[in-house]
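During the second year of the project, the team shifted from modelling isolated chains to modelling whole assemblies. The rationale, set out in the original proposal, was that interfaces cannot be judged from single-chain predictions alone. As a representative example for this report, we include one of the complexes processed in the last quarter. Its constituent sequences, exactly as entered into the pipeline, are reproduced here:
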Amino acid sequence: MSGQNQWKFPPPGAVVLEAQGLVRDLGTEVKTRAVNEVALTIREGEFVSLTGPSGSGKSTLLYLLGVLDRPTSGTVLVDGVDIEALDDNGRARLRNEKLGFIFQFHFLLPEFSVLENVTLPMKRRGTWDEEEIEGRALETLKTLGLEGLERRRYYQLSGGQQQRVAIARAVANEPRIMLADEPTGNLDTANAGIVMEIFEQLVCERGNTIVMVTHEPSFAARASRQIQLRDGKVVADLDQRGGRQDFNPPP
Amino acid sequence: MPVVVFIAFRLLWHRRLLNGVAVAGVLLGVVALIGIRGIMRGFQDKFLLNILKANAHVAIFSKELRPTPRLLDAYVEGPYTAEIAKQTPSDRELRIKRPTEILRTLESMDGVAAASPILVGSAIVAFGQKEISVSLRGIEPEKQEEVTPLAGYLTSGDMRSFAASPDGALLGSGVAKDLGAKVGDLIVCSTPAGAPLTLKVSGVFETEVTPIDHSRVYTTLRTAQTLLGKPDIVGEINVKMTDPELAHTLAERVEKIFHYDAESWKETYSNFLALFRQQDVILGFITGTILIVGGFAILVIQIMIVLQKSRDIAILRSTGFQRRDILLVFLLQGIVIALIGSAAGCVSGHFLLDFLGSLKIKQETLIKSDHFLVVDDPKMYGYATAFALVTGVIASLLPAVRASQVEPVDVLRGQVG
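Output from the structure prediction step:
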């Protein structure tokens, strides 16, 4: 599955995500500047990989971009909306309607079936009726090769299948941007390859926008754009459209 | 179904064993409340009902020796020198003057159903060698029937022969038993003041209020007057109200109008009523505590679940569920637990009361009964459910608030499963 890269990335569209002077200090007594003056513009149809050594602030930056965390200073604009102007409910609605998350671990809810896990964010959103929601979920699961597993609980699935359900949960709700935090970190090579294929397919075929944190150079290279962080700062921002052939190892 | 409700029910069902324990806690509380209240009310209601039937709602009499207002006071201001040198009870007859007019006035007053004259005194009845001191009550049978009906309490004999014979007497069941007298027997009744008379037992009554059954003997008013040496004297007027709760108001009015003492049944039995109130407070406290303990079951179990589920809460929050949604999910669980618990508690409580009510237990303390006295009052179920719900909401508020305060980023950062 992780064979030759046959995907052709679409040309980047309108700006969907923008970070301005983003700073985030972590810790209570000894403060560490996890994210330091980051400015970024991410356009529709981009597949961005965030890379950098441990502690470079890539996950912290992702949480800030995903409106899960609040910056110490600076701001994030999602689809033109300044998140600093929103209250907690507004940020939750923004996450619900515009953002989709995929974590290192699947984080599926054990009380709900695969199908229900995928439908919950859509049900919260309330854009579609019950029938449409189920249709969308079933279709997404089918696209991700999970047909026939809809009624199962996550613990009845393999690790790769679990992560694909988590991707389906994020995708089915039609987010403007998908944020993935080490989505392959918990998977074996074969399943990690499948996840990468899915991401490429989503970007190239459906025009989705994905920001992915990874420390796997070969996966970072498969993105259309690679942003490298070190000590909370952007040290490289490489356009890699065309695939991994253009990959330039960081200095 | 709103998604929040869906999630709440699913979470509840998923931990049904644990939540079942919380439900059981609420159930026990509700059963205790219904059961204990039912038993207590069974006794209290029966007692009050019998008191209200066997006693006047308002009794009007002349009790205290109060100096009558002086004519001098009307004309002379300031302290006067006149003083009563000696006043003993014998100086003043304990009687109601012009009873017929008072009766007529009373019967025309609002809230008064009936009024009857009565003369009460102490007497000793003897049958053979057996003597018992009793409370003798002279009544006008027809009028008294309207105020404190006795006919329904008769276990033998009948009212008509009592009303017809001048020397008839109605004996309380306890008195009759102690004397060994039956209907038709002749008993001798004597008082300190009058001459002894031979009376014929024309009936035995049983009000099921033990103190009454063991002490009362009814005769006609005229016989009692003769026995007590008080010809033509009416000692008391008994009043029956259309609504017993209004007795106190009437008593106050009567005192103002006629200048006699008037005592409502609530005053007469104030010691019992105070006792009942005390019982209510104590048992209310106990049942309340049991329900609150049930609430703690919800609290502890829900807190535990919230702590266990902080990762799932974080993921729900990250997919766009608001704090309020999470709060509702856990609040709803508490409410559902309280609802199921109180519903099950109401059903169990009903069966418990049914069972207790069917128990054949002979008791003869303050009241006489051959079965366990319980009251199955629908209102109790309402109170119990309301109380359980309030407890449930309050108990699940803390865990729910706690759940709503989960910061997704704190949980998700560094979570590797």
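The longest strand of chain B covers residues 112-127. The CA atoms of residues 226 and 399 of chain B lie 78 Å apart.
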